[in-house]
Specification:
This protein has 324 residues and is of the alpha/beta class. The protein folds into 2 domains: 198 residues, Vaccinia Virus protein VP39 (Rossmann fold, 3-Layer(aba) Sandwich); 92 residues, no CATH class. It contains 10 helices and 8 strands. A 4-stranded mixed sheet has the order 3-4-6-5, with helices on both faces. Strands 1-2 form a two-stranded parallel ribbon. A two-stranded parallel ribbon has the order 7-8. Strand 1, helix 2 and strand 2 form a beta-alpha-beta unit.
Length: 324
């Protein structure tokens, strides 16, 4: 659920799982997912409108009753985000985690739900969201699932970016939970420079311009550097949100962009391209995001880094094997 561009799904697929069904509200994310996972059935739907019965019916078209399944996904996090100064406990999006669990309950009536993986921002544990967070954990217990809460930084799993997230892992067997331990292993690219140095210059998005015009990669495009600040790149800071310049020899801060918040390239002359942001997230070089520029910004900002997802999936595998 809430499949987005498929970062979490990609990690599980690489660990040997079959992605049977996916759902997201954004049509461009669904297009991206459908192209990356042709074997899966991905639908565009608002889960509130589709409802529990509607989703279970969709899954029933693909999965036979009694099969062993897992449920993965992270509800929209903007309502819990600490970077959202207007976040509040009564944000309508904050009800989606409990809808997620209502769906899990309905799925348990037809299938053997062996595990769930629930991803969200650290802010979901803040005091103002305490009712929602404790509700999630108590509901999991009521469903007979044994849960643990962990905080993970993608950098510790081979992603050249500091991105800390809450992961709730829950299993039908208590023995599986006891052995769930994603292995932190910093391998591969560790800095911005290692991830994006040597790439050709991107194309610039403009009216009538499409990503396909870039021959290197369809996502290697960026915003026109119109601000006068780009004429004085030495004045950029390494903090803040709107004009944060990356440091070549350090990992990137969290790839999570709002309006005109795409990080500035280390050379200070432009913002990152979508493709460069994808490399900072740990996506494969041949992965493609679909949609207009703004839709691609949203997809890459919301994505779970695939290397982190893979580590979670391997840990789930090991836990389920221990339960056999």
């Amino acid at each position: 659920m809430f499949s987005g561009a498929g970062g979490l799904d990609l990690g599980f697929k690489e660990a040997g799982y079959k992605i049977a069904f996916a759902v997201d509200i954004d049509r461009w994310a669904v297009k991206t997912h459908s192209m990356a996972f042709p074997e899966a059935h991905c639908i565009q739907a608002d889960l509130v409108e589709l409802g529990v019965d509607g989703l279970v019916a969709e899954v029933g078209k693909l999965v036979q009753p009694g099969e062993r399944i897992g449920v993965i996904g992270g509800p929209p996090c903007q309502g819990f985000s600490r970077s959202n100064s207007n976040s509040r406990a009564d944000d309508p999006r904050n009800r989606l985690p409990l809808l997620y669990l209502k769906i899990v309950k309905a799925l348990k009536s037809k299938y053997k739900v062996e595990f769930i993986i629930f991803e969200n921002v650290l802010g979901i544990k803040d005091k103002k969201h305490e009712r929602t967070f404790t509700g999630i954990l108590s509901t999991l217990k009521e469903l007979g699932l044994h849960a643990s809460v962990g905080e993970y930084d993608a950098y510790e799993f081979g992603v050249p970016q500091h991105r800390r997230r809450v992961i709730i892992a829950a299993f039908s067997a208590s023995q599986a939970l006891e052995t769930f331990a994603p292995v932190r292993q910093i391998v591969g690219k560790k800095t911005v420079g290692e991830a994006i140095d040597g790439l050709p210059e991107p194309s610039y998005c403009s009216r009538g311009n499409t990503a396909e015009l870039n021959s290197f990669h369809p996502n290697h495009w960026t915003m026109q550097p119109k601000s006068l600040r780009f004429a004085h790149p030495d004045q950029f800071k390494q903090d803040g949100r709107s004009f944060r310049r990356l440091e070549r020899d350090k990992p990137s801060p969290t790839v999570a962009y709002g309006h005109r918040e795409i990080h500035v390239h280390p050379n200070g002359e432009r913002r990152l391209s979508i493709y460069e942001a994808m490399q900072l997230q740990g996506f494969p070089q041949d992965y493609v995001l679909f949609g207009p520029f703004s839709a691609q910004v949203q997809q890459i900002s919301n994505a779970v880094p695939p290397p982190l997802a893979y580590a979670l999936a391997v840990a789930v595998n090991n836990s389920l094997q221990c339960d056999l």
